[in-house]
Structure formats: structure tokens, C-alpha cells
Amino acid sequence: MLIFQGGMSSENSSPEFMQAQMGKWMAWIEKLSKAGKYVSGEPLLPGGKLIKGKSKTVTDGPYTEGKEVVGGFFIVNAENYDEAVKLCDDYPGYEYGGTIQVRQVMKMDM
Known about the structure:
Shape: flat
Helix content: 10-25%
Radius of gyration: 16 Å
Largest sheet: 4 strands, antiparallel
Distance between the termini: 20 Å
């Protein structure tokens, strides 16, 4: 799983910028798909709810610094971490400070 963090801010969110970024994302997804590596993925809307503690207190959020905001995820097919990291070479968010967590999804037999 590739988990995308940061990379966007209010300073770079003009409609023209967003359209250009979307083109970069779509090109990256197409490249991964043609290579048989892209399985699925979705952007996450801002906001949400945060549930905490034994009392299950619900608050609006989660509110974190822009660089820590999780903006979306991809599920990819990779043989190992090295290959998964290599798949991230074309990530459009790098030039704006974005980062990617590369995590292995544990398969559960149910």
C-alpha cells in the first residue's frame, strides 16, 4: 500500500494548478496500470471524524499539519519493498514536499 501525505497547500490550489496536478496523477496511474502494478486507490476528502479513548469521544478532524495529512492511497502489486519503492519514482507530490509511506498489507484468512 502506498499512503500519500502532504504535498498540497492553499498556496498551490488554483484551478489551473489542480488540473495540471490531476494530469500528472492520471499519467502515473496509467503507467502503473499498464505495467500491471496498480490495483486500486482513492483520494481522501479533507476533514472527517476522530474517535478517541475508552469513552469513544468523537470530534471533528483529524486536524494535523499539512505535511502530515493523509491525502489518499494506492494498492499496488510489488514483489518486495524495493520494487514498491521504485514504483514511487514518478509520484507527482514530491516537488511540493509530499511523502509516501510504503506498507505491506497483511493477508488475513477468514
